Amino acid sequence: MSRLMSRNDLAFLLHDWLGVTSLTSRDRYVDHDRGTFDAVLQLAEEVATRHFAPHNRRNDAEEPTFDGETVHMHPEVRVALDVLAGTGLIGSSADVELGGMQLPHVVATAAAAWFQAANIGTWSYALLTVANANLLMAHGSTQQVDTWVRPMLEGRFHGTMCLSEPQAGSSLADITTRAVKQEDGSYRLTGTKMWISGGDHDLGENIVHLVLARTPDAPPGVRGISLFLVPKFLLSDDGSIGERNDVVLAGLNHKMGYRGTTNTVLNFGEGRHTPGGRTGAVGTMVGAEGQGLAAMFHMMNEARIAIGAGAAALGYTGYLKSVDYARTRTQGRPLGAKDPSQPPVALDQHPDVRRMLLAQKSYVEGALAVVLFCSRLVDEQLTGETAESRHRASLLLEILTPIAKSWPSQWCLAANDLAIQVHGGYGYTREYDVEQHYRDNRLNPIHEGTHGIQGLDLLGRKVSMHNGAAFTALCELIEATLSRARGGAPHLQELAGAVGDTLGQLVDVTSVLLDEPDAQVRLANSSLYLEAVGHLVVGWAWLDQLLALGEREDGFAAAKRAAARYFCRYELPDARTRLRLLETLDRTTVDLDPSVL
């Protein structure tokens, strides 16, 4: 059995729970069947196991270096990415006309989980490239798609997104990178971008940067932001690689995790390279002027779900490795055993170790379920058979995206923490993988919008959007599951009772929060709101999975029911505690004078 992911769990989630084979009745996926989907997942597992996992630890220990001119990294990174490109999996969900496989997004997400668990540092280059290509397919011109997307899906070109700047961080309204239009319709960009993952390397022929910048007469704030495509190398008329564009690597950021992914400071228009004899990096506008942030959110929202999927995958592989360790490592004797001459027992014979393993299972399998459900919503939004079903999928995706990003990033990190604990002293040594998984996963609560930003997005925008339509759709989704479970077996009724009580409390507290006129008070504890709603959604996902299990009786089903029971009894009460605090409109953080800290 693989220690990266669980093939049985993926098969259950995709087929028994989400019914992905039903998608093959739709025009977009009519050329596929279950055999196609299973073959893709098997291929992903094989490539991840053979070409990604073996250099994961070396990729961490021998992180990329910069000599002032060139980035140097472990050679197996390019080998793995070249093998990946040869499989066609980079463009797995893209249109066949562009060289893609036109697979459902949910199947592509499940396949990607194998690579994220095996070596998230190497996989990140592909993840960013796919997100970049998808944005261009949605917002770019026909020429931009033909010129840049095809080579990216082939694995020849790579992609990035360049948002943050040293002085702005997550506050994109304060970016200052400038784009000046030229007589030929192109733009010249000058400025500095910070925290750019995959910003420079020699893993392919070219790097396509998507850059947020302002034109000279743009209004202040986010309304003045436009999006530009800026390649590392310009192309000749025949499409071959031409002269170097004025995009210069200023340095690498040295991270605690994801060390195999270059994280860069990029200078645009520094003057080191002057294409055509003029200063500035050459770029072309993507979409309409002033609509850059809206277009970039297409990439960011996709990346947010992918970050949640990566967090779940890192938590999952840590869980599987700690289960394996607990089954084989002997230490101590059962509680109450008095005879020291008796042999020690395996760690998993101790109740507290079983608690830690069960907690991990409840987090990682719950998180994976939520991420795959959101990916299934992407397919429904794109191919739903009625306008109503597509609209409902869009509403649910809007309100669930901050949860799908942040809940796995917080609680699958907690799972990695428990995996270290199960390993004991060995857990924090570099000889075991679990300490690296923790370090890698610790970046995800910050990647693509911090935990706090996701909380503000959920409570400040998504809950009230369209007069509360998205929030209503979420409540209806949960209520539909509750109505099916309430008349079921005792274990279903118990979880349904806990989920139903939490939902009722959430509806009441949400009304209190939305009625509060002071935005500072209303949003002060939005992170707690995010965590409470996330717990409720994961509780719903566990209940819905139990319904999909039906009367199945085997080890897999027994383990699922145990994890659901654990989440219901040990974790879901935390959501109600947070909601009780939120209902008081507590002002502790609002009234605090920061100078006393």
Brief summary of the model shown:
The chain is of the alpha+beta class and 597 residues long.
Give an overview in words:
It is a single chain. With 597 residues, the chain is α+β, with helices and mostly antiparallel strands. The chain contains 17 helices and 12 strands. It has helices at residues 7-17, 34-52, 56-61, 76-87, 105-139, 142-153, 292-328, 351-383, 387-423, 434-441, 451-462, 465-485, 490-515, 519-523, 526-549, 555-583, 588-591; strands spanning 65-66, 71-72, 157-162, 178-181, 187-197, 206-214, 225-231, 233-235, 241-244, 247-252, 263-268, 281-286. The strands form 3 sheets. Strands 3, 4, 5, 6, 7, 10, 11 and 12 form an 8-stranded mixed β-sheet that branches. A two-stranded antiparallel sheet has the order 1-2. The chain has a two-stranded antiparallel sheet with strand order 8-9. The longest helix is centred in the middle third of the chain and has 37 residues, at 292-328.
Features:
597 residues; alpha+beta; Butyryl-Coa Dehydrogenase, subunit A, domain 1; Butyryl-CoA Dehydrogenase, subunit A, domain 2; 8-stranded mixed β-sheet; two-stranded antiparallel sheet; 12 strands; 55% helix; 11% strand
